[in-house]
Each structure stands twice: as structure tokens, then as C-alpha cells.
Amino acid sequence: MASQRVDTGEPVAAAAAKNPASAGARVVHLPLPDSEVALVAALGAGRADAREALFDRYGSDVERVLYRTLGPDSEIPDLLQDVFVVALTSLDQLRNAEALRSWLIGIAIRKARKLISKRSRWRFVQHLPGFSLPERPANTASAEVSDALRACYAILERMPADERLVFALRHLDGMELTTIATACEISLATVKRRLARGQQRFLALAERSEALVDFLQGGGFAP
Amino acid sequence: MTGLDTLFQHIAAEEDALRAGASYKARVRERLALLDAPVPAGNHRPRWFAVAALVSAAAALALFAWRSLQPPALTVAINGAAATTGAWISAAPNEVVPLRFSDGTQIDIDPGSRGRIVELAPLGAQLLLESGRARVHVKSRPHANWQLSMGPFAVHVTGTQFEVAWHPEQDTFELDLHEGSVELTGCVFGQGQRVTAGQSVRASCKRGQVSVAERAPTAALGSAASAPDLAVVAPAEAAAVAPGLASADASAARREGHLASRALVGMPNEATGYAPLARAGKYKEAFAVADAGGFENECARASANDLLLLGDAARYAHQPRKSEYALRTLRRRFSHTNDSALAAFALGRLSFDALSAYSEAATWFQTYLKEQPGGSLTREARGRLVEALGRAGNPTAARDAALRYLKDYPTGPHAELARRLAQQ
Q1: For residues B25 and B298, what is the distance between their CA atoms, to the nearest angstrom?
Q2: Geometric angle at alpha carbon B195, from B29 and B106, rounded to 5°
Q3: For residue B339, what is the nearest residue in chain A, using CA coordinates?
Q4: pLDDT, average across residues B29-36
Q5: CA distance A118 to chain B (A)
Q6: Is the per-residue pLDDT at B261 higher than 50?
Q7: Residues of A whose CB is below 8 A from B279
Q8: CB under 8 Å to B68, separation ≥6 — which residues?
Q9: B55: pLDDT confidence band, cut at 50, 70 and 90?
Q10: Which residues contact B180 (CB under 8 A, 6 or more apart)?
Q11: Between B36 and B262, residue with greater pLDDT
Q12: C-alpha angle B49-B54-B57 in degrees, rounded to nearest 5
């Protein structure tokens, strides 16, 4: 007679207790030194594992900045790769190896800015073959929040590239103003000016959006 | 914190969830590792500069001489306009992009698909299909050499007609070969697997799965001496076949005169995707990953065991309808199996616990008992059946089920409930 189990509500898949995943073979690389200076030196020497290490250490940061500045966008995988290809082929322009992370983020911001500007220029021909705006998927939020997210992205897409970048980095990524200034290669005063204009524009457009009304109840932007 | 701050936090969380489920990072990392080692311009080594310049000049001269002896590379036109190496192709949602090559080869990129012309050579070309589907008709010529790359997979072609699709988010490779033969490489295909006319291939690198179905009854098996055949599985029973075992399974199946079926063994899963998360008990995260890739799509190509995982993940993520969908898909695709019976039990529990559909729950528990008499969940199914019939307002059936339960399991976990119902 088959052994019996008590139904504890456990997962059926686990209860079936089948097909345990076996461990696969893996290649183990000796780790590179942790310091950015050592990593840059290894990159300069053309070590393939240094390129992987570069992506492992900073890929997530670069990807996050691309997401924050562009939103979920079908171009992000290509841009992410482009950022690292540009970095690897222009490593000589990195003056301070310890600033590797912010240098990469600066490249990402320039890439994002270029794409936003290009799309703004060609917005009037969106209907032409080959051009399609990316979907804006919403996976985790409620329907109301999803609507608000889409409305928010729609507003961001109507903002000028420079304002949008500063606005997104400040409000979506929580980046300090001085960090934004460094990453965007502009002065702190310019950051403040663009941010103020961006906030003003965002509020003006948000007030016309039904999906965002509830989110405007608590006031505008925190000082 | 203002309402807008809250909204921005939602956006950041949403984006982070999407990032967590993204599958492209491994590909980007892989491509970066494969890049030719870049030589930064500032890596100045003046002593070598003159030597390097001389070597470069000599190489350029040799290249020029070699090229002058070679036939010209193919040319390609897109909608009548010449395209060059590196051209990026992005088909609009309602448009097919036709690539017409100078040797007569035709490749149609389906609506919504994206790709790139990587290389044009005298005897062929290399194309990258980033995502979507392409219909390919390669003109047969001596020594023709075409290659289509998709994620970890590549199709090597000499002259043939086929359709190929790559869905990176779902990690799904599809190939329907109409004419001739092709060789597949990469991941589950290893160094080379020959596919012949009439065969359809579906593969996933992450799940280590590949299935091959014969579409035409007269189609011959691949017979290239240099490449082993893939297992041939009937469309209705197309199932994952273990790489490495594929050839042996196929041979055995042919010897025995039946189809290789349910060879559900695969390469170890990568540490990405919903399955490892679900196995680790991270059901909500697993469901989010599966849902981000299209839950129904995941169900369509999941193995039976993975469908049970998807059912569990959705149930714990409070998505009973999605859980039901996964379990019903399992029963449809893998009918008459132990997993199918387990799905019936799970559907009964889901109907009872999450959907409060007690009659339906009773039917599912009865189905399990019918399909798995003496199965490991028999006592639980019979107890749950008693409970479901009682809740469904069917006292006669509930009493009968309760009496039968008490006879076999007088001290079972449902004995007290059964006694109460038996006395009514």
C-alpha cells in the first residue's frame, strides 16, 4: 500500500517530490581585486574576466539609471550593452579610475538623453513603419496605480530631454543634486533650474490627468 | 511624504520588478565577454607605435589583395533600398520587412520582430534575430553558408525554407523546417544537431528542453553523418528531451517502433526564471517572473512538473484563476499521467480553499481518486471529498462518503468531521 501523507496545504509540486534539480558544472574564475583602480588596469590589459566583472559590478546601476530615465523601454537591452561597449572602447578617457561608477552612469545618461531627443524629433512621424512606442507593462501594481504609472510616463515623454533627465534622476532615483550635476556634466545651478522647470511642467500636466488626481491631493513636491 | 512621492516610489518599485524579471542581462554580459579586447586609445606605447603602424599597413595591403581575388559580397535590399552590414531592422506591429538578397535568398521579418544584418559575405550572410519571427528561403547554391543567430541558438543553412522564431523574454526558440535541412547549434543543441524537412523544433536554453515533432508523415529523419539526430516526438506528445540523451532516445524509439515520449529530463535549470524560485519556496517572486513573461505562454511550454510549480506559485500569490489555468493546462497537455492526477487533487483543493466552489472541488477529488486509486494522497482526497460534499449541501452523498472514510480511516484527520456528517 502506498504510504500516505497528511495534506498540509503544501505545494503539490513539492509534495510530488520529483525531478530534483541536479547541480551543473560551472567554471570558476579567480576573482579580480575589488578596487576600481585594479579593475580598470585589468580592463586596459584586455582581460575578458575584467569585462564580465565590470558588468557584474556596475550593470545593475547602469540598468537602473536607464530605467529611471527612460521607463520600461524595449531599447534598454541595446542601450545597456552600448554603454559598456562605449566604456570599454574609450577607457582612456576615464581620468580617475576611482570614478568608474559615476563615469559609467554619465555614459548611460548621455545614451538616454540621445534616445529621448531622437524620439522627440521624430515624434511627428510615429506612424511611419519601423517606429513604435514601447509598451508600458505594469506587473505588480493595482489597476489604479497602473493607470497612474502610465499617465506619469506619458507626462515624462512630453517633457524636454534635459528637464526629464534631471527630474527622473531626482524624483525616481532619489539622486542627490550634486551627483546629478556630476553625472550630467552640468553645474549645480543648472540642475536646480532644470529641476524647478521640470517640476512646474510635471504639475501642470498632471493636473489635467484624471489618473493622477488622487496623487496630487497631498500637495506637490517636497521641498 | 506627498502623494507624488508615493507615486514615484510605485514607479521605482514597478521598474525594479521588471528589472528583476528581465532575462537580457545574461546575454549582454555574455556579449561583452566575447568582445574583441578593446585597445583604449590612451594606452600609449610610443615605442611600438611605428611597428604597429607598419604591421597594420601590411595587413591592410594583404586584405586588399585577398579581397580583390574574392567574389563580391552579397547585397541586400529592404523594400527596394540597399542595406548594409550592421543595418538594424525593426518591423512595425503591422508590417513585414522583406530582405531580398542578390543571390535570390528571401527573408521576411515578421511584424513586431527585430534583428540586425551582422555580415554579408560572398556565399551567404549572418543575421541576428533579436526577437520575433522570420520566414527564410535560402537559395540553394554550392558552398552557400548562411547563419541566423538568436540568443544562445544558431541555425546554419545551406539551402532551405523554414520559419524561425526567438522570444527572448520567454527563452523560447522555434523552428519549422519546410524544405532541406539545417544544423542547429548552441546550448541544448551543443555543437550541432541536424534537423530535416517536416520537423518542428521547440527549445529553451534555460529549462534545458528541446522537443522535435514530425509535421509530415513522409518526412525523413536527419541523416547527416556529422550530426546526430534529434528525438522525434509526436506533436501531441512533444516533450522535453535531455540533451545528450536525445540521440539515444530517438534511436531506441525508432527500434521499438514507437515514439519517444515524456523524456522529461533536462539540463539543470539556471538560477533564473520562475522554477528555481518556486522550488526555493519564493512563490510570489516566482509568480511575478512567470507572469512578466506571459503566464499563459509559460504554461504552454512548461513541463508537467513546472506546471505544478506554476500552479503552486500562482496559488500562493493569491491568483487562483491563474493557478487553475496552469493545472488545467497540465491535465490537457499531460493527460493520463501521475502529474495529471496530482493536478486534479490540486484543482480540488484550489476550488475548495480559494474559490469556495465546493461541488467542483468534490468532482476534482473524485477525479483524483478515480485516476490514482491507492495513490499517496488517497486518504487526504477522501477526507477532502467528505468535507466538500458536506459544504456543497449534498447530505446524502456526504454521509455515504463519510461512512466509507470512517471504515478505512477511523482515526484519520477527517474522522471527527466524518462522524458528525454520518450522524446527520
Answers
A1: 20
A2: 75
A3: A16
A4: 71
A5: 16
A6: no
A7: 13-14, 21
A8: none
A9: low
A10: B140, B157, B158, B159, B160, B161, B162, B196, B197
A11: B36
A12: 125
- Which DSSP state fits B187? G
Residues B43 and A91: their CA atoms lie apart, in Å, by 9
Burial of A89 by CB count in 10 Å (0-12 exposed, 13-18 middle, 19+ buried)? middle
Mean pLDDT by 10 residues, chain A (223 residues): 46 47 43 78 81 90 93 86 90 87 94 86 46 42 74 87 93 90 91 94 88 77 66
DSSP H or E run through B146: strand B146-150
What SS3 state is found at B214? Answer: strand
Interface residue of B2, B7, B9 to substitute, partner A, most A CBs within 10 Å:
B7
Residue identified by cell 506591429 is B93
Taking a C-beta distance cutoff of 8 angstroms, is the pair A138, A150 a contact?
Answer: yes
The C-alpha cell of B168 is what? 527572448
With b for 16 or more beta-carbon neighbours within 10 A and e for fewer, the B113-143 pattern comes to: bbbbbeebbebbbbbbbbbbbbbbbbebeee
Of the partner residues A9, A128, A141, the one whose CB lies closest to the CB of residue B10: A141
Q: Which CATH architecture has domain A32-126?
A: Orthogonal Bundle (1.10)
Q: Which residue has the cell 568608474?
A: A100
List the one residue out of A105, A71, A73 whose CA is nearest residue B10: A71
Determine which helix (DSSP H) or strand (DSSP E) holds B127, and give its type and residue range.
strand B124-138
pLDDT of B200 above 80: yes
- Beta-carbon neighbour count of residue B200 at 10 Å? 19
Helix spans in B182-268 (H): 246-256
Candidate CATH numbers 3.40.50.150, 1.10.10.10, 3.40.1400.10, 3.40.50.970; the one for domain A146-223 = 1.10.10.10
- Which residues in chain A touch residue B17, judged by CB atoms under 8 angstroms apart? 139-140
Of B35, B343, B376, the CB nearest to A88: B35
Angle between helices B283-292 and B3-21 (to 10 degrees): 80
- At position B418, the amino acid (one-letter code) is A
Q: Is B310 exposed, middle or buried (0-12, 13-18, 19+ CB in 10 A)?
A: buried
What does the pLDDT average to over B261-278?
Answer: 49
Q: Which of B91, B126, B124, B83 is closest to B108 using CA atoms?
A: B91
* Res B171 pLDDT > 80: yes
Cross-chain residue pair B41–A90, CB shorter than 8 Å: yes
Length of chain A: 223
SS3 annotation, A65-109: HHHHHHCCCCCHHHHHHHHHHHHHHCHHHCCCHHHHHHHHHHHHH
Ranges of each domain in chain A: 32-126, 146-223
Rg (CA), chain A: 23
Cβ-contact B249, B261 below 8 angstroms: no
CB-CB under 8 Å, A72 with B29: no
- Coarse DSSP helix, strand, coil percentages of chain B, rounded to the nearest 5 percent: 45, 20, 35
State how far residue A190 is from chain B, nearest Cα, in angstroms: 23
